[in-house]
Design brief:
Elements: E1 2-6, E2 12-16, E3 21-27, E4 42-50, E5 54-61, E6 65-72, E7 74-79, E8 86-89, E9 93-97, E10 102-108, E11 113-119, H1 123-126, E12 132-136, E13 143-146, E14 149-155, E15 169-176, E16 179-183, E17 188-196, E18 198-201, E19 204-207, E20 211-215, E21 219-223, E22 227-236, H2 244-250
Length: 251
């Protein structure tokens, strides 16, 4: 079994518009100096926060599935397929299936926070497909609450969220001084980000903004003595195709 904790200081760093939007990147580009590089079908992961209201200008994407999970506040999105600005608020999620090409722009209100995560759905196929886009509202996602633990199922299970990347599950787990055991598949890697509070993962302690990688687990016991909020992605150790990162590293 393997558990690795990557503190914020070892994650990549970035900024837009002279620091109006700041980011730490659990999975970054080479120039971001993150200690974690792409793995499984996860290619990029940024936690962005708007220090003041700001807009990231129009920029292109291809192939990848670009998912924005709105953690706090409000954002607006524009792309060259819809050609209109669309609002999203805390708990909402958007997906851009970038396909053969799309450009988009994001406007973040002051103190808004998002995860932007790029998934690799097998670019050898998706680069031949037209781009598509969907918004999902916070009320769309099924939740379950028991014994002080609330779980929101964002991707997988009964969630309506549709993506082409195989084997992905995403949950947000909120604990109130308690524990939760997450059934795990040894064929998957579990990527957890502590959004609030502190928690232990099979006995290994993590705090706010820590990134946790867990492999070869039969179960993951998450415990907290204070209120904690944790974002968890399960993805396949072996997606079954050569990812873009693998192709690039072999070049």
């Amino acid at each position: 079994m393997s558990i690795r904790i990557i503190p914020k200081s070892q994650q990549g760093q970035g900024a837009f518009n002279g620091g109006q939007i700041v980011e730490n990147k659990p999975i970054g580009f080479p120039q971001d100096h993150s200690s974690v590089r792409p793995y499984s079908n996860l290619f990029y992961w940024a936690h962005a926060r708007a220090v003041e209201e700001s807009t990231i200008g129009l920029h292109p994407h291809q192939g990848f599935e670009i998912c924005s999970f709105v953690l706090k506040g409000d954002i607006r999105h524009f792309d060259t397929k819809l050609r209109e600005w669309r609002p999203l608020t805390a708990g909402d999620v958007q997906i851009i299936r970038a396909g053969n090409g799309i450009s988009h722009s994001e406007a973040m209100s002051k103190d808004a926070e998002i995860f932007q995560i790029w998934f690799d759905p097998n670019l050898s196929k998706t680069l031949e497909q037209p781009a598509t886009y969907d918004d999902y509202r916070a009320t769309d996602f099924p939740q379950e609450t028991a014994e002080g633990v609330k779980i929101t199922h964002l991707v997988g299970g009964e969630s309506p969220f549709r993506m082409d990347t195989p084997g992905v599950e995403v949950q947000q787990i909120e604990l109130q001084d308690g524990s939760h055991t997450l059934a795990a598949d040894p064929g998957k890697i579990y990527s957890a980000y502590v959004l609030e509070g502190e928690a232990s993962f099979n006995g290994e302690r993590a705090q706010t903004s820590d990134f946790v990688l867990l492999t070869e687990q039969q179960a993951i016991d998450i415990q907290s003595t204070t209120a904690a909020k944790i974002f968890v992605i399960a993805s396949l150790l072996n997606p079954g195709y050569r990812t873009y990162a693998q192709v690039r590293s072999a070049a």
